[in-house]
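Researcher: Re-running this chain for the archive, since the previous output was lost when a drive failed. Same request as before.
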Amino acid sequence: MVVLNLATARRSGDTLPSLETGPGFIPRLERKDMKPRSLILALGLALPLAAPAAENPAVVKAMEEYMDFTEYGSSIIWPEQIPAEDWKKVFVIDARDAAQYAREHIPGAAHIEWRQAIARRGEIPRDRTVVYYCNTGSLSAQAVYALRLLGWDNVKVLQDGIEGWKKKGGFRANELATESANKPAGH
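Model: Regenerated structure tokens:
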């Protein structure tokens, strides 16, 4: 990995560092005391260099095939769709960072941050339903999309994430939704 080093910018007599680029180029700021003008100039020069990698035809084809043939809603699941007794059969993964996981998580959930989904895919079973969640569903959706492209058709996003799961009753969401649906109108 090549890093843009902005550490040479000084408070007085600012100079721009040399720019190195290449595959995996990631701009990184290494000093907090840069003048705003130098920072803007350096970033202005660096951003065009951080363009996405060239298209890989095999990746594009895999994505097109997935988008063409996946069924609408096949990669999401609502808390209400999982009866309380079935949660024990589901492999649940928390996609959030370690601090959020430590603070609160769905009981029994494994912790694989969304950015680690591909690197740690060997830890994810293929023989049962896997539910990936974050706070609202947006980060876990990225992990699920990547895993499904790699053939993990059993992985689903918990729609509305842990926040929706809590609001809907957690492990009791299915039971509460069923009770609500069976109540006569006006009661």
